[in-house]
Design brief:
Layout: H1 2-23, H2 30-36, H3 38-48, E1 60-62, E2 77-81, E3 85-92, H4 98-117, E4 132-139, E5 149-151, H5 152-156, E6 167-171, H6 179-197, H7 201-213, H8 218-223, H9 225-263, H10 272-275, H11 281-294
Parallel strand pairs: 3-4, 4-6
Antiparallel strand pairs: 1-2, 2-3, 5-6
Length: about 300
Amino acid sequence: MQGETLQEEPKEKTAEKKEAFAKYTAKDSVFSTLFRDKKYLMQLYHALHPEDAETTEDALSDITIRNVLTNGIFNDLAFRVGDKIMFLVEHQSSWTMNIIIRVLMYLVQIYHDYFEEQDADLYGSRKVHVPEPELYMIFTGERASRPETISLSEEFFGGKECAIEVKVEVLYGDKGNDIISQYVAFTKVYNEQVKQYGRSLEAVTETIRICKDSDVLREFLAGREKEVISIMMALFDEEKILRTHIASEKKETARKAAEKMLKAGKITADEISEYFTDLSARDIQEIKKELLQTI
């Protein structure tokens, strides 16, 4: 029996990893996995609106932009409470005011999808119904003296009143033990483990152990430990693939530019390495060989 168990484990792990790749993209994280579960999405809503004791899980609709099959925009989390309010929630570990522009783009797309869904006549005389937007950024870096709200007019137009305004409330996870605070705590524990163990399986498993012991996302992590490990490890693999792809694209661009300059007589073959540092000695040899074949 013990021998049979040992033989089956690698198959099970392989299946889990394949499932993680099939379900999630590099943009996804524990954040999106957590809040795809309505139980935790409801906790997020209560953290944002603790005064509302009437709304139930059934009133929450996930409207996150995913664009799995296209190269369009996609965001971290969006959900609607009935037809009353639309929530856009982004998470950031590094501070950037560009999040305001991105949130604006997401909001326009989500409104577009909503009006399509409702068959709203935007060209008619009757005023259409528009759910009220609430925009948030969960910031997992160090707060320091950062503001509670950031706005388009303040950050991009020097505070001048303009034709469009966007205000994003920044959440730092420093208000009690709600689901937002627990998620921020999870990211900080993970960052510490990465410092100690690098981007490894040990860092992931230690993060989960410490968080469960500290009552940080304990129920979520205890119930989905294997899934969370698979998701996080898949992210490492995806990030490596992305870096490799970017480096390859950069090298291909440099190669085409070098070939173009060679043919135009702007540089000699011996000057390629001086102008195109992204190209290896082997790349340059291949370019020289191809050039000789065309002469």
